[in-house]
């Protein structure tokens, strides 16, 4: 997230907002502890900031919205903001919150990619964070997709990096053939440990972003986060200049990246079908 924040800062700079000159950033981080979100949000409100930017998803966005109805809130990459009570509608949010959303339905794409990239695989493990407000919907979306794709699904709840070794033990017992995980902050911040455990288990991983691919995931599927954060800079610029969040329609990603890591495929003895490779926006050799 900190790397993506740099993209946002660069985008703001291009629009005339220079840190240290006419822009001050006051960053707070929950460090994977979702229970800290409400207090962090209240702390920002007490500092009378002009704009709150939420990077950590729907749970953090709910905490920010609960903390203030006055300060504009810009969210980036939240899941289904209407369903989770953040806005009245995507076209007319109607409150003090707007930004960029990511459809819940895209999570089924991870399982589809797992089935395609690892031919013959049917037993798929999925890790999810039960402290995330979207967890039950995340599980439901994956269960629905697994049924449609004819996959056997093993959902393992994980709320901290300390739980990962035991989770991989459970995957081994269930003879999982692929691991899938989504863009939850706990997993993003523990991606190195996830990939190290997966290498030891010789378990191919379908991950949520470029960083996972660089660490050794077999394939990743995600919104173009660089484009997403550049677009977020445009939203932030308008809000800082007085635009009303209630009247700013929320946007959805218009581009997704598929990255295939053929180096990992060779190490695991997997032949990724050419139909998958040819669709990739990037191939790691």
From TrEMBL:
InterPro entries: ABC_transpt-TYRBP-like (IPR007487), Peripla_BP_I (IPR028082). Pfam families: ABC_sub_bind. This is ABC transporter substrate-binding protein. It comes from Variovorax rhizosphaerae.
């Amino acid at each position: 997230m900190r790397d993506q924040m740099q993209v946002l800062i660069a985008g703001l700079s291009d629009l005339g907002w220079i840190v240290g000159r006419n822009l001050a950033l006051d960053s707070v981080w929950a460090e994977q502890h979702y229970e800290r979100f409400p207090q962090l949000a209240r702390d920002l409100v007490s500092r009378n900031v002009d704009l709150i930017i939420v990077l950590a998803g729907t749970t953090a966005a709910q905490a920010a919205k609960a903390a203030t109805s006055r300060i504009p809130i810009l969210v980036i990459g939240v899941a289904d903001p209407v369903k989770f009570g953040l806005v009245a509608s995507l076209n007319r949010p109607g409150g003090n919150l707007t930004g960029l959303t990511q459809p819940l339905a895209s999570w089924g794409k991870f399982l589809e990619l797992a089935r395609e990239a690892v031919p013959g695989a049917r037993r798929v493990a999925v890790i999810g964070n039960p402290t995330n407000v979207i967890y039950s919907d995340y599980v439901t979306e994956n269960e629905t997709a697994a049924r449609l794709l004819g996959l056997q699904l093993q959902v393992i709840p994980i709320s901290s990096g300390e739980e990962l070794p035991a989770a991989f033990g459970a995957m081994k017992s269930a003879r999982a053939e692929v691991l899938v995980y989504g863009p939850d902050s706990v997993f993003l911040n523990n991606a190195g440990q996830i990939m190290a455990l997966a290498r030891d288990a010789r378990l191919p991983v379908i991950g949520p972003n470029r960083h996972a691919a660089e660490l050794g995931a077999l394939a990743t599927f995600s919104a173009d986060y660089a484009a997403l954060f550049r677009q977020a800079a445009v939203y932030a610029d308008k809000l800082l200049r007085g635009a009303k969040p209630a009247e700013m329609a929320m946007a959805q990603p218009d581009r997704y990246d598929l990255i295939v890591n053929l180096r990992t495929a060779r190490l695991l003895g997997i032949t990724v079908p050419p139909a998958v490779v040819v669709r990739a926006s990037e191939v790691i050799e």
